[in-house]
Amino acid sequence: MATTTAPGKDEIMAALATVKDPELHKDIVSLGMVKGVEIADGVVDLDIELTTPACPLKDEIENDVRAVLEPLGIPEVRVDFGARVRPTNPAEGQKAIEGVSNVIAVASNKGGVGKSTVAANMAVALAQTGARVGLIDADITGPNIPTMFGLSAGLQAQETTGLRAVERYGVHVVSIGFLLPRGTPVVWRGPMIGSAVRQLLHDVPWENIDYLIVDLPPGTSDASMSLAQEAPVAGSIIVSTPQAVSLEDAMKAVSMFEKLGVPVFGMVENMSYFIAPDTGNRYDIFGSGGAEQAADDLGIDFLGAVPIEPNIREGADNGLPLVHSHPDSESAKAFHHIAGQVAARISVLQRMGN
Ligand SMILES: Nc1ncnc2c1ncn2[C@@H]1O[C@H](COP(=O)(O)OP(=O)(O)O)[C@@H](O)[C@H]1O
Ligand SMILES: [Mg+2]
User: Fold this and answer.
1) pTM score, whole prediction
2) In the chain, what are the domain boundaries?
3) When you count CB atoms within 10 A of the terminal residue's CB, does the N or C end of the chain come out lower?
4) What is the pLDDT of residues 189-206, one digit of tens each?
5) Cα–Cα distance measured from residue 174 to residue 167, given in angstroms and rounded to the nearest whole number
């Protein structure tokens, strides 16, 4: 009978060198993702470093790793995933934001389509994967994020040290609303909005933030332009409802980002459909699939569809993002899917050298 010797590290590494990262199309050994191989008492411990903790392909990579090691006859393989998120490099004339690796803009040309809802839930979804996440409410004249996170308006009005982020549901949130009592009308002119955005980005003390999500006001606004000038934005997400009129507006947002040199990660269709809780029947209230078609026409990716869910509105009014309060709902899954897509897009862009 042939005796088999336990495989050594070289053999294991050789096997792992046949596993490809499904998105980067290179093997995980030459990508430097295998950070540790330890063999003790027949147990192999692998330490694999991903480019994002929100990696949607984690399970696929683990299955592939197990499949190539299986023929080596190792009694037990333990796979431990870590992540190191790399930063977006600033373009010429831009200043990196201290303490922040990647900025993600959430935009649309129309109000009320769910930008803030998508920004808030995507932020919580990313934080749930273990990423360090910040959220800037850049809707200077109509800040909604404090309400959505159950943070009282004006909570930092008395402070002399300036705005700082407050952590809620694992997300570091900051809003001009922290300085103003609820309902205070704000009349700001363009240059003031630009300087407010600059301060939210550069004057707030950020620490080790992997993803900083910026909830923009509707339109091709001063805030969007200031953001693109003031910071290296990794990319943007355009939110739309399925109606044509909203899509026309979304297309304007896409061309604005293209002009500003900010990559467009893709389109999210919000209020895409409704599942009746009593019958389970699906209703396409605004006509579904419009955003997907538009994304296709514009040559950008479709990142996902979020259904209409009464819990979303209720939660938003009561300071409970749905991803936190109803983690198993259809919409929470949609937000997680979108967050994973965006994190993966950032990883791929970085591997291509920004
Ligand atoms: N998928 C959804 N299902 C139910 N209500 C939603 C959904 N998306 C957004 N809403 C609600 O619609 C309103 C507008 O959303 P909001 O995120 O504030 O839009 P925007 O930031 O684009 O102006 C809010 O009351 C929000 O709770
Ligand atoms: Mg909003």
Assistant:
1) 0.92
2) 9-83, 100-351
3) N
4) 777 888 889 999 999 999
5) 9
